[in-house]
């Protein structure tokens, strides 16, 4: 399985992405946490923004469609989108992810 | 080293798992955060639950026993359990993890 | 890209590390969350501490200098420092990370 993350400034938008990605069967589980404080550079300026973070648990075969849907729903010009591959997943959790996709 | 995650609805249960896994030498450090909001499908229905998340830092050789203990203590039928392998760990942190196992 | 984590007991110190690492071009983005509750063993005793967590998004070529700066600024004797390699990053996000380094 893979774990993917994005973040955005509106909690309501984040909840919408969580709901729609699970409804469309593109992630087994999406977790929302925040507020977090993000520090980054945008157009040469140091920015500090309050954001909400989404963490997706998905099967590798869902990754391309999930990335596309998140980018369609995400309000940012350049959304954060990183996926990490799990080295180990419990058998039960993997079976559940496969059955809920 | 590996990083593993699970989540559960009771903060008290989460604290118990954190304490017992460290006491039994199965993780170097366990971090609890939350509440988070989880969205997933369970028996065909979309569910949204408030949960607490545990993040374990462990040595690969602790993984099997840690997974077994977490599953014994975890109240869910299908607990989340994903492990990711670190590409890089600082030397000091790795030494400390080895000495505290 | 890589994702790296550390944690520390002072939110103010964490904000300082976030700002300085981005200012010096050693991470594309740093996210601060907390408070979290950390459980670990230190000199034989079980400890439970409130901490703040930093999550860095970086290019692999920034990793060595970022690790060195974080360790210079971090108040702990043995700071947490783990990096994970992303299996997939969106093209736009990667371009942005390269341009903001």
Automatic annotation (TrEMBL), chains A, B, C:
GO terms for biological process: response to metal ion. The lineage of its organism: Bacteria, Pseudomonadati, Verrucomicrobiota, Opitutia, Opitutales. Gene3D superfamilies: 3.30.70.120. InterPro entries: Ion_tolerance_CutA, N-reg_PII-like_a/b, N-reg_PII/ATP_PRibTrfase_C. One of its GO terms (molecular function) is copper ion binding. This is Cation tolerance protein CutA. It comes from Cephaloticoccus primus. Belongs to the CutA family.
